[in-house]
Structures
1.
Amino acid sequence: MIAKDERDCIGRCLASVKDVVDEIIVVDTGSKDGTQGICGAHGATVLEFPWNGSFADARNFGLSQASGDWIFFLDADEEVDEADRHKVREVFSFADRSVVNIHLVNYYGKEVDDKKVLEIAHPRLFRNHIGLRFIGNIHEALNVHDVIPDEQTDAFIDAKVHHYGYMDDVVVRKEKISRNLKLLEADLKAGGSPQWTHYNIATEYARLQQYERAYQHVNQAILHFLQQQLMPPSLVYRLKYSILINTGSWDGAWPGIERAIQLYPDYVDLHFYMGFILLQKEKYPEALAALERCTELGEGNLKHLVTRGFGSFQAWYLKGICYEKLGQLNQAIAAYNEALRIHPGYTDAREALHQLAQK
């Protein structure tokens, strides 16, 4: 991993892996808060690397010092789930694969809340000594298809890694968005992968709620994918329609979202967005059909970036609203109760039931 001034979190990260890995290498890019001492106390080898504006360069420096057959890379603000730590070593069973995904659980919002979670299968384990390296100054990725063009990318170990780096307080304290935008703009000028750079810029502007700029960049991302005769990944369409929803652009979002669903019919987030959009357009039977598809799909397809609740309690809550609008109050009550059965702490559904009881 790479680190700079991570004393608040790096100890928990290292403690979560030290018993399942053979060596720990931390590349420090200039800590002044005692991070290096914490790393040493957890048995890590600490290497100093002057920050040069590239996360990939820092990771590759650490990679050059690693001796193991497999690499497991993490961020300092991540932790491997205690119940899943032993699963990491299942990687040795993948005799015919060079890259393996884990179950990444991303938290967002003001505090850790299991209703504000995004989940995805993410490539974090890969073979050493075969030429794999990181590319990109920021949101660095492995050069898998340059080295192994035919590599299948669906190998998966259900070991959860919890990521807290985009909680509101961390983003503000570390000035992440301004830092990220500066590095991404430099990436854009340098060429590289403009489709992903535009996508990542759009993500940062969406976090700032600068939705017009975000929308411009996500459309540029889609255009660059298509120009390279590549299908834009599902999470790019997810971002596009979340931006339109946040700006209340219902007519801009529908029926366009139906075309995205034709490309990714198994992506629950797109069906949820369609249900939400149709609800706003007062097309309640159509919204119910979309939300029914959400609960059929569930949230287990982690080849997509999945929002927790979109295939379960949040979908049932919106179904309850649709039933209310249609005057089908018994069905509405049943839908709200189902949302609460799945997630007893879901206050929106509880409040909806309370309001119904007052009628």
2.
Amino acid sequence: MEDGFSKKARLDKEWSELLYSQMSRDELLREVDRLRKEMEIRKDQGLWNAVAVLEQKINMALSYLHKDDNAIQIGQTYRVKGYPDRFRVSRLRGVMAWGTFENETEERAFPINLLSPWPR
């Protein structure tokens, strides 16, 4: 017979092995909350590399939350969080927006959560 703790640990392990693409909206929200709490702990510990990894995981999970919103349109220009230049989306693949920055030819990809409409 399992006690409550070992059952929770088993469920947490199974849940953490799910891909973001397999998670429900509620599971993604819980995962984002868990990652944010872990990120605060890592900040307090001064583990900045871990903080950066957790930020990336949060952005991916949030991208899966918004992947069906149709907010990102091919051919449109967006602001990418952390970048000053305009980014024009040329294609979408899953939760990644592919495109180029102004005056660049190299194609890049960003999680859709990092994109916001460029002010007109």
3.
Amino acid sequence: MPPSNLGRNEPRTTTVTPRSICFTRLLMNSMTWTRQRKVFYILERDRCTNIKSVGNPVTHNAHYYGAGAWMKDPLGIMGTETILVMANYESNYVVEEFENMDMFKVGVTRRKYTLPYTWDGTGGVVYGPYLYFNRANTPYIVKYNLKTEQEEARISMSGYTARNNYYAWGGYSGMDLAVDEQGLWVLWGSTGNSRRLYASTIDVVRNVITHNYALNTEQMSSMGNAFVACGVIYCIDSYNSRSTTINFAYDTKTGIQWNPNIQFTNQYTYNSMVDYNPRERVLYAWDRKRQVTYPLTFEEH
């Protein structure tokens, strides 16, 4: 047996394996992501007020699928201009990535991600290096690492029945993920709460549901869409009326509910996706094949 070097004044030799390098990189990436989330929250939370008005939609592109989701990473980890597209609401497991808006408009993809499962609905979101989506016909939210292209976690939604209660436009839209200044949310439907909307917060480090809100909305099947901004849940009355309103708001910080009666335009009369981007402070939407954004005006402090 060779003599031990312990206790001698000789440098220790550490064997570095590819596996240890990979783990270290993942750990550093996780730390960076956590730090950026905290910095973003601190910077944005003091700006938070209620939405005062929604501007007219700005059309950016058109897609051959009538329904779908498009988004940017609000933390900027995937690139501040990078666009991800989840086309259609079923039977698809390929996510397209575009370098910027110009490449998106001409249809030049930078990358394609093949997910391990198909998704339901148009409620997928990107948050940092992760894509979150509802695995088709299940009560699970899948956390997919876009850097490693691997499933990293699976979050179970207790009380959720797949393909049972969803927005008025249909499309298996019963689970709608959302991101705001406070973090990751899921808006979802159930046979409970008189089939009204539920909202839940997600701890993205522990990958668990942390808070549930049973909201006094109209039934989800009568609702156009919903989103979260500055900790306030907003519901849109119709998805197919050209002129409609945001007719419900609930502040999760104060517990106050009201009807803001904010005018909202479905320019192409089939709005299957509405999501808030807290970095840009605009709404992203997919309205009858068109990808649009809505400028927002917030109340003064």
4.
Amino acid sequence: MSTSNKKINRLTSASMDFDDCIKFLDALQHQSYSSPAYEALLISAIIFYVRPFSENEKKNSINPSDPRVPDSVLSELSPDEHKLHDRLKKLRNKAIAHAEWSHHPTGVTASRIIKAMPFSIWKHFRGQKELQEFISLVRKVRRAVQLAQTAELRKLP
């Protein structure tokens, strides 16, 4: 399979993930803030947003797709958008998909009482402004992915 075809396949998959992410974020508008449904939709949106940026294919395996989208799709982001992108990746990788201690701290007191601080998405998304910034970021990155996809399609014979 050609390099362009592999890139197109990954970019297409990423575009669909971003579409789902936007669908989840739009559905949040109809949920009560701090409800379980709101939390589930927000976590799903984060997972679907970050998935195209993580290695999805094993190295050196024969796959019809590149392992991840190219970093070039982030080239037009502002410094604040880059910060949000990095924060979303960190949340997904360290708190949502995996339970690193820094986000899920536990311990035992001297009197042998187990103490734990459950992860809370509410510490990271406190209101409508942050949600709108997330929606804007996803739309901007999805557009960059679509443009990259078009550029790769033009390379095909």
